[in-house]
Amino acid sequence: MPRDKVTKQMQEENEKKMEQKLKETKDNETKILEQRAAVRQLSRVPGSCPVGKCNEIVFPSNLMMHMLHKHVNAVGTTSSEIYEHKPLIMSFDPSNFDFCVNDCLATLMYGGVKGQIATQPGHSYLSNPNSALINEHHRFDNYLPIMLMVCRTTWYAQLKDKHLETQLASINASKSGIYVFWLVAPKTTRKLYYTLTIYDRYYLNSRSVIRVVRDYTQSQNPSEFLPSEDNYLLLRDSEVKNFMSMSKSASTSYPKLGIPIELIIYEDPKNPPMRHSSQKELHAALKQVQDVYIMDSVPRMRGAKSCANSTKNARAKKPVLKSTSSSTESPISHSSIISD
């Protein structure tokens, strides 16, 4: 092939590469501008704290501060940093839950891809940065606060007819109990996905779902969102008993911990987690979780009633807007483990 022809061909290839790079640069700039605009359009309207016994109204940018100061050290609550595709293992003790009261099972600080600051939600335009953090909590300025919620209710909460729900719950609530699990966070510019897996004590059986994190400013009453949404995991009382039951001989040396739960968060639905923790990793992790022994069987419901009535009472007692600032700092308790 003549040298001139080869030179011309190489020049054309270089020009194509330059054009492609220029196009990619322009596309990235356009994408960044769109993401910045999306962040500016995020609602800053405050919402009620999703924890049932907390009456505070919290602004989205203050939810991290509120969570760190009010709920991190709550009894039975796991608190941990969590990163994309890094499994977080915790333990669920079903023995002490009031009926129709939202409890926080875990307070989480999501930091994007571990070790990559640019992927933190505040830097990647997934959410607004947090405000009012003090001292060592400043490291969470660009993290996203996430809360794993659980509520004990009945199957009838899935009915759209709330009058019928109330009637059925008053008749047969003790035999229709369920646990509802879901994740909440401030509204984000893009959907945030998670895989939630619940195991039995010996990791022989499991239930797993892929769901989207809910906006905490929406209603967090299962009686209101169960009929129209699917971003939650349900466990019947009978399933909880099965997960808690002894699947090995009574002479086993394993401790009777609660039900193991594995949580994996990721932003790209096309790239879900391909690997769960191994049985060995899960056993090692649970040794570091909660050193609490629980009963073999789930107790009967206390104060069974319809959650539809709880909603009316909650609306009637609208909390007064309070400042969520605090002069004290709550240390983070690492009662969970993130698998590498």
TrEMBL record:
Pfam families named in the record: DUF4729
Domain of life: Eukaryota
InterPro entries: DUF4729
Domain called DUF4729: residue spans: 48-245
Comp. bias intervals (Low complexity): 323-340
Ranges where the record places region Disordered: 1-26, 304-340
Protein name (record): Uncharacterized protein LOC111597288
